[in-house]
Amino acid sequence: MTTHTHIATGLAKIGLFLRSENWRQADAADLSPTQAQILAHLTRRGPARVTALAEALGVTQPTASDAAGALIRKGHVARHPDPDDARASLLHATASGRRAAAETAVWPDALLGAIDTLGADERAIFLKALTKMIRELQVRGAIPVQRMCATCRFFRPNVHGDPAAPHHCAFVDAAFGEASLRLDCDEHEPADTSDADALWQSFLGAPAGQADAPPAATGEAS
Ligand code: SF4
Q: Which domain of life is it from (predicted)?
């Protein structure tokens, strides 16, 4: 086997564990894994249309629609008119839906313990490697667009001389290091298509101060 297949095998083993944990947690809350993912999405990101949920979760629209219908019957989700489009409706998590989401949104202790066996440097390297792999899957259209730093208009990679904190988040106006790269950030906004490549190349390793920073984002929070 090549290193590629060793890595793929390792990822598959971790994926198997996570899938079985997702099933176990969702089952304990009387949900399917897709229902649990919908509740988590509505709770974290607010009301959404079925089409947006399907896109965010990487499932077909009928699958998202069936799961949403089951959640409505269970009282975890309510459908309200979309104020932006009278013909459309938005799904909202109810109070019981938010409680169910909290029950199923806990990372397994076994996984956190396994991550804990890595040293700080190993975690930072692993996180950067995951960022590269996830971004490539996104570029190839294999997974939906991810809300991660490497594709965010607020990300300023390698703009600081401090090796411990070379990157900058323009949303919170703070420097940060590789170990704090986000793979699923609520504040993420996609970079313009024309800036995305320069952003990525800067992230991949242009020395501090030489990277072409993407244009300043507008409407940034401080
Ligand atoms: S807003 Fe979030 S995703 Fe964007 S750069 Fe800041 S931390 Fe990263």
A: Bacteria
Cα torsion at 140, 142, 147, 153 (round to 10°)? Answer: 20
- Report which residue type is found at 50: V
Find the radius of gyration of the CA atoms of the chain.
19
User: Check: CATH 1.10.10.10 for 3-104?
Assistant: yes
Query: What does the pLDDT look like over 142-161, one tens digit per residue?
Result: 988 889 999 999 999 999 99
Which residues have a Cβ under 8 Å from the Cβ of 172 and sit 6 or more positions away?
A: 187, 221, 222
Question: How do the domains of the chain map onto residue ranges?
Answer: 3-104, 118-203
The full 3-state SS of 103-166, as one line of letters, equals HHCCCCHHHHHHHHCCCHHHHHHHHHHHHHHHHHHHHCCCCCCCCCHHHECCEECCCCCCCCCC
Residue bearing the CA closest to ligand 1, atom 3: 149
Does ligand 1 come within 6 angstroms of the Cβ of 155?
yes
Encode 34-59 in three state secondary structure: HHHHHHHHHHHHCCECHHHHHHHHCC
Q: Ligand 1 centroid to 141 CA: how many Å?
A: 22
Answer whether 149 contacts ligand 1 (Cβ < 6 A).
yes
Q: Which amino acid, one-letter code, is at 16?
A: L
Please state, for a pLDDT cut of 70, what percent of the chain lies above it. 92
Higher local confidence (pLDDT), 161 or 105: 161
For the Cβ of 187 lying below 6 angstroms from any atom of ligand 1, the answer is: yes
